[in-house]
UniProtKB/TrEMBL annotation:
GO terms for molecular function: peptidyl-prolyl cis-trans isomerase activity. The keyword Isomerase applies. It comes from Theileria parva. Coiled coil: none annotated. Keywords: Isomerase, Rotamase. This is peptidylprolyl isomerase. SUPFAM superfamilies: TPR-like. Its EC number is 5.2.1.8. InterPro entries: FKBP4/5/8-like, TPR-like_helical_dom_sf, TPR_rpt. It is an enzyme of class 5 (isomerase).
Length: 107
């Protein structure tokens, strides 16, 4: 236990830097996995971010992108609606909601 305390000091500056690195890493892993067509892994990394920062627009957007790629339209729609609640000017969310509407209409 002493080693852990030494390895991971509990001063606020260190913890802030650690959280920033964790956030950046998960956001980067989400987009990398998305680009590699590993959509479920992308969603997992988004969920890691969203567990600490539920209103993080990048994580929400990347999660919606992954659900769209998996054709999970209801899940994507739900996230896109949340994005619009947080940012009513989100062109991405508006465009994707319209796309979902067209997909559902054409079925």
């Amino acid at each position: 236990m002493i080693q852990l305390d030494y390895a991971f000091p509990e001063d606020e500056e260190f913890l802030k830097k650690f959280e920033d690195v964790k956030l950046s890493t998960n956001l980067n892993m989400a987009i990398v996995n998305y680009k590699l067509n590993n959509f479920n892994d992308s969603i997992k990394h988004c969920n890691e971010v969203l567990s600490d920062y539920p209103d993080n627009l990048k994580a929400l957007t990347r999660k919606a992108m992954s659900f769209m790629a998996l054709c999970k339209l209801n899940e994507a729609r739900s996230i896109l609606m949340k994005i619009l609640q947080l940012d009513e000017n989100s062109e991405y969310a508006k465009k994707e909601l319209e796309r979902i509407k067209q997909i559902v209409t054409n079925k």
